[in-house]
Every structure is written in C-alpha cells, then in structure tokens.
C-alpha cells in the first residue's frame, strides 16, 4: 500500500530545513512525500488519496480546514512550529489549540515534556494521541557550519505592535482569547510588552551601530520591515537580512540579540552569545515572556550592560534538555 506524507509549509525560511530532515527519514521508508507552501497544497485536499498530513499547528481558527482534511479520509498529525515559546502558559496554549482542534487531530507531537504539560494542563488529551518527539527544525541544525566571529544578528519580534494592520492583529487575538475565557489583561500585557520592546530595541540598535558593531537585522516575518530599514539605511555597518534560512543566519553570527524569539533556542544549540534586553520595567510582564528564551539568554538590565556583554562575548551555559530534545550531531 502506498504511503503518503504531506508537509505544508507556512514560512519557508523557518520550516524548510526541518521538513527536509523529515523527508530524508520517510524516503528511506519508501514513503511518497509532497512538500510545498500550504496555499499550494490545501486546495488539493480532495485530490490526494488517504495520506498523513503533518501540520505546523492546529490553531482554533483553522478548525474548518482540519474538518475538510479529516472528511477526505486523511490522518492529521501536528507539531507546533514554535513549541509554545512566544506566549507561555495558558495564553499561549489557547492561541495554538482548542478542544475542537485537539479532538479532530490523530497525533500531536511536542518539543518536550515541558511543552506537553502546558497543553495537557489545559485540555484533556488521550495518552495514545500525544508523543514527545523534539522538533525537526532542531534536527536540521546539524547541517549548518557554526562560525565564530564578532558579527551581531539582531532579531526583532514585535508583530503585535509593529504590524501593517495592528487593529486586525489585535482583533484576531482578542476574539480567540474571548472564546477561551482568557483574561483581557493577559492580552493587554502582550501588546504593552511589544510596544515597549519595539521602542527600546530601536534605541539599542542605533546605539550598537554608533559603536561600529557589524549588525544584521532580521525582522519578524509579520513586522513592518520599513521600521528597521529606515534605521539601517543611515549606517554602513547595518544590513537587513537577505538570507532565507534562519538556521543558516544564526550559524554565521557570533552574537544573537533578540526579544523573546524562538530562534534563541536554535542559537543555544550553537552555543552562541545570546542576549536579551530585560530592564526592570519588563519584570511585571515576565509571565508574558517565554521562560525558555529567558533561560538561554544573558539578561541585560540596561543598554550599557548589553554592550559590555557583546564586547566580552560572555556566553551563558545552556541547559535545554527540559525544553527541547535535540538529536545527536553526526
């Protein structure tokens, strides 16, 4: 019997290498793999014979799509692409899962025991339905050469505030959280921390550039790039990332400066100098920030301390075993 695996990608730059690492394993088992952008694959759900669909998420807003996949006799499997990292706890869980999407899924994979417990604390899931597997994206890291240098990769992650349609983004989040009885205070905190972070990180970037650090700026895919391009165009030592793959980008920079980015975990795999600006005023919003990204980062209370840590290249010891499983390097 022919076995099919369908891998729909949303953001190629983030997901392609992880999908290829999976493809390599399934091809050895003589499966047929269909790999492409989700917009290319979803219109043909009816055309595929019974297949395994491996989805990057089962968010509440895509329940109708999941019903269509199931109606056509397919097997639904999923691993949340960001491992619940951007928004921790109840807030993050209800943004990525619902009772309906969990019920319709056949197999749910998790980055770690930690991620699994976050979801099972909120939703009842049969034990046979979930499995702690690690992440294909983490397995793909071993394919990139790790370079040591003084270049800075500046990762911006403020899509809730620095967005082309901020009102729409806010409404999508609000509607979803309201349905799941999540406090509007939690949502408000998310927007406040993105607003404050966006303003602060622009100041940090300018300070770094004036100090003549070589900085590559990589905006979040949902952000307005113009906000960062307007700064970069004034400095010869600044550039906006043109590299398509985040793993390759991380491997080519010695220091990673980020704000609550899942990429901090990939950076920890390479033992990079990982820095996150975290002044006292952020502390009251700490429950809106991933404990994983905090765990792997050197937390700087002010810009002067941040610059000092960039210069000293003082790496933090990264203990990721409780947060994600990495396959052994080969």
Could you describe the 3D structure shown?
The chain is α/β, with parallel strands linked by helices. The protein has 14 helices and 12 strands. It has helices spanning 12-28, 38-41, 63-71, 89-96, 99-104, 113-120, 136-139, 166-179, 184-210, 226-232, 246-251, 263-269, 291-296, 303-312, and strands at residues 4-9, 32-37, 52-55, 75-79, 107-110, 130-132, 152-155, 215-218, 238-240, 255-258, 273-277, 298-300. The strands form 2 sheets. The chain has a 6-stranded parallel β-sheet with strand order 2-1-3-4-5-6, sandwiched between helices. A 6-stranded parallel β-sheet has the order 9-8-7-10-11-12, with helices on both faces. Helix 10 (226-232) links the parallel strand 8 (215-218) and strand 9. The two termini are 33 Å apart. The model has no long low-confidence stretch (mean pLDDT 86).
Care to give the gist of this entry?
By secondary structure, this protein is of the alpha/beta class. The strands form 2 sheets. It has a 6-stranded parallel beta sheet with strand order 2-1-3-4-5-6, sandwiched between helices. The protein has a 6-stranded parallel beta sheet with strand order 9-8-7-10-11-12, with helices on both faces.
Pick out its properties.
330 residues; 14 helices; 6-stranded parallel beta sheet; alpha/beta
Structural class, by secondary structure, is alpha/beta
What is the chains' assembly state? single chain
Q: N- to C-terminal separation? A: 33 Å
Strand order of the largest sheet: 2-1-3-4-5-6
How do the helices and strands follow one another from N- to C-terminus?
EHEHEHEHHEHEHEHHEHEHEHEHEH
Mean pLDDT: 86
């Amino acid at each position: 019997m022919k076995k099919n695996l369908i891998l729909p990608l949303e953001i190629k730059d983030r997901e392609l290498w992880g999908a290829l690492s999976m493809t390599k394993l399934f091809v050895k088992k003589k499966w047929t793999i269909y790999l492409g952008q989700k917009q290319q694959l979803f219109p043909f759900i009816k055309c595929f014979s019974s297949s395994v669909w491996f989805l990057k998420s089962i968010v509440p807003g895509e329940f109708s799509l999941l019903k269509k996949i199931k109606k056509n006799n397919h097997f639904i499997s999923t691993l949340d692409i960001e491992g619940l990292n951007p928004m921790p706890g109840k807030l993050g869980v209800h943004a990525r899962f619902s009772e309906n999407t969990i019920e319709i899924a056949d197999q749910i994979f998790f980055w770690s025991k930690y991620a699994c417990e976050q979801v099972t604390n909120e939703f009842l899931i049969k034990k046979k339905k979930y499995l702690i597997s690690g992440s294909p994206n983490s397995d793909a890291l071993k394919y990139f050469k790790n370079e040591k240098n003084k270049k800075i990769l500046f990762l911006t992650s403020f899509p809730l505030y620095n967005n082309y349609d901020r009102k729409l983004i806010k409404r999508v989040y609000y509607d979803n959280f309201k349905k799941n009885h999540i406090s509007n205070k939690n949502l408000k905190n998310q927007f406040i921390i993105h607003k404050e972070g966006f303003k602060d990180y622009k100041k940090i970037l300018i300070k770094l550039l004036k100090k003549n650090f070589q900085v590559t700026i990589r905006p979040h895919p949902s952000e307005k790039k113009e906000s960062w391009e307007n700064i970069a165009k004034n400095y010869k030592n600044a550039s906006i990332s043109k590299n398509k793959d985040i793993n390759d980008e991380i491997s080519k920079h010695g220091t990673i400066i980020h704000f609550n980015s899942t990429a901090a975990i990939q950076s920890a795999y390479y033992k990079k100098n990982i820095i996150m600006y975290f002044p006292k005023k952020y502390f009251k919003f700490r429950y809106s920030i991933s404990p994983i990204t905090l765990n792997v980062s050197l937390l700087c209370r002010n810009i002067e301390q941040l610059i000092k840590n960039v210069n000293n290249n003082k790496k933090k010891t990264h203990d990721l075993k409780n947060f994600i499983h990495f396959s052994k390097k080969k």
